[in-house]
Amino acid sequence: MDNPQDLVRDHTIYACVMGSRAFGLATDDSDTDRRGVFLAPTPLYWRFEKPPTHVEGPADEQFGWELERFCALALRANPNVLECLHSPLVEHVTDTGRELLALRGAFLSRQAHETFARYALGQRKKLDADVRTYGAPRWKHAMHLLRLLGSCRDLLLTGELTLDVGSAREPLLAVKRGEVPWPEVESRMARLAAECDAAAARTRLPPEPDRRRVEDFLYRARRASALQAYADDQVVQGVVRAVDARQG
Fold first, then answer.
1. Nearest to 84, CA basis, from 120, 34, 24
2. Burial readout 41-78 (b: 16 or more C-beta within 10 A, e: otherwise)
3. pLDDT, tens digit, for every residue of 38-85?
4. Do the beta carbons of residue 89 and residue 17 sit within 8 Å?
5. Residue range 168-173: average pLDDT?
């Protein structure tokens, strides 16, 4: 593949808007973050050089995963990937993309508690380092950490991952603007983390994701891609034979 971005242009099966716009936290200066999933044609895997697992671009603030990589991350309850699957702002979807969206529940499991909490802990350490170094955290990051913890709690309680923060918009934006004292933000984080732990203890989510369903979907998508490539090749060969016959 000479230009990996051609995979995004020609083979995207699902594309959405993420970030503040998907969370209901956008303001006038918010970027538009685009995420997507592309299905690399199966014949590309028959070469020594394999297709990329992810591609940045071609537009600014755009990032795409190859389907297999995306599914593997979602099965491990990667927060960014799970949230991508649940964006309310879908910009493009094919039949294969709709099959992927129909599998959203298959990716959800109790593992989300661990992965969301681990991600939150990493972000909290960065915020604490900022406070020690600069006297204040990066308030935008603090806002998104609160949002993530609330999303994790609600997922464990309801079994559904909802991105839009709804009525929590204004309190969260107040944090982003630096209007809430850091000790109060710390207190909110601690309370949300405790609520996540409590919700995990009684969640109805299954212990593990449904790996078999996802694997069956991936197999069918790869097989359909291979069959389409074969059909296209047969058409090309037919055209070549017709041209040769006329010239002969």
1. 34
2. bbebeeeeeebbebbeeeeeebbbbbbbbbbbbbbbbb
3. 999 999 999 999 999 999 999 889 999 999 999 999 999 999 999 999
4. yes
5. 97
- Can you tell me which residue has the tokens 């020594």? 48
Q: How far is CA 58 from the centre of its chain?
A: 18
Task: For 243, list phi and psi in degrees, rounded to 5.
Answer: -65, -45
The residue type found at 180 is V
Nearest CA to 111 out of 231, 178, 206 is that of 206
CA dist 26 and 119 (Å) reads 22
Residues 6+ apart with CB under 8 A from 27: 20, 173
**First vs last C-alpha separation in the chain:** 35
CA 164/CA 13 separation, integer angstroms: 23
The structure tokens listed for 16 are 């959405």
The bridge status of strand 62-66 relative to strand 33-38 is: parallel
pLDDT beyond 50 at 144: yes
Give the C-alpha separation, 91 to 93, whole Å.
7
Cα(15)–Cα(158) distance, integer angstroms: 26
Place of tokens 């709709």: 98
d(CA 229, CA 32) in angstroms, rounded, equals 34
The SS3 assignment for 65 reads strand
